[in-house]
Write a structure and sequence with these properties.
heterodimer, A: mainly beta, 7-stranded mixed β-sheet, B: 112 residues, mainly beta, 5-stranded antiparallel β-sheet, globular
Chain lengths: 115, 112
């Protein structure tokens, strides 16, 4: 089945640090990748949609300068949380889908803790 | 913003019993999907039902869709302790963006 690898699984860092999270589709080409944020015991909130080779589309209320997304190849998208602060602490999950209608396949998430 | 609401928010049952979770949504959809999430992990795709389908089965899972009521249900039969997880419905709208809007989720606990 389709596998999406997300790395790292856990990050703890100081306030002001920039953190990069990688999302890779291991056995298929991901036309589109999605980035979500999830607070404890809550649902997933879509942050942005990225298509290979084009700029990401951000959901309303998501700061594009804060959450930089790059989708440079058909198998890799990155989310960089710039100058992270404690309120950015959360669980970030990526997903990827291939061409045509395919379900989204999810990574295992990254737990980000900003001290 | 979240589109779907799920109920119950939490469900605790004994192993062997059936578990039913309901999902309601607000706008027209192409399809509805159910996902499972173990604590602290990503989501696993369970089943997809298209807007022109009314019922779908996969193993111990049965999903129904009522587009007139904008609702869906997920039934897990003969539950097992390993079914303990959060379950989310997600809808794919008509705008061809492939974006999913997730429901609020049901936390299922299956007691051994």
């Amino acid at each position: 089945g389709a596998v999406v690898s997300q790395h790292p699984s856990r990050v703890i860092c100081k306030s002001g640090t920039s953190v990069k999270i990688e999302c890779r589709s291991l056995d298929f080409q991901a036309t589109t990748m999605f980035w979500y944020r999830q607070f404890p015991k809550q649902s997933l909130m879509l942050m942005a949609t990225s298509n290979e080779g084009s700029k990401a589309t951000y959901e309303q209320g998501v700061e594009k300068d804060k959450f930089l997304i790059n989708h440079a190849s058909l198998t890799l998208s990155t989310l960089t949380v710039t100058s992270a602060h404690p309120e950015d602490s959360s669980f970030y999950i990526c997903s990827a889908r291939g061409s045509g209608y395919q379900p989204q396949h999810f990574g295992d998430g990254t737990r980000l803790s900003i001290l | 913003s979240q589109q779907g609401e799920e109920d119950p928010q939490a469900l605790s049952i004994q192993e062997g019993e059936n578990a039913t979770m309901n999902c309601s949504y607000k706008t027209s959809i192409n399809n509805l999907q159910w996902y499972r999430q173990n604590s602290g992990r990503g989501l696993v795709h369970l089943i997809l039902i298209r807007s022109n389908e009314r019922e779908k089965h996969s193993g111990r899972l049965r999903v129904t869709l009522d587009t007139s009521k904008k609702s869906s249900s997920l039934l897990i039969t003969a539950s097992r302790a390993a079914d303990t997880a959060s379950y989310f419905c997600a809808t794919d709208g008509l705008d061809s963006s492939y974006k999913l809007i997730f429901g609020s989720g049901t936390r299922l606990l299956v007691r051994p």
